[in-house]
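Hi there, hope your week has been kind to you so far. For a while now I've been wondering how a particular protein folds. I'm sending you its amino acid sequence along with the backbone structure tokens. Could you read through the record and tell me how the tokens relate to the sequence? Take your time with it, there's no hurry, and the full record follows here.
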Amino acid sequence: MTILVRESIQGLLKSVGLLRSLRDTKRILAQHESDGPSCLVLDVRLPGVSGLDFQRELADAGVRIPIIFITGHGDIPMTVKA
């Protein structure tokens, strides 16, 4: 996700009080709180790991959270896998 797209989404969600932004996948795993509704907006291309690999890490760690993938680099097989 380009910086401008990420900043636009962050601004929109922050304006309605729905944002907790973590850019590091390790912090997301460590700081996930299951109290209350949540959703993760994730790019397929992340620094150091793919979004699909991170989705698998979350599942392996028992973190059950809905994920919305946003990417400019998707294709049909990737969509099916997500």
The CA atoms of residues 55 and 67 lie 8 Å apart. Helices lie at 3-15, 25-31, 51-60, 76-81.
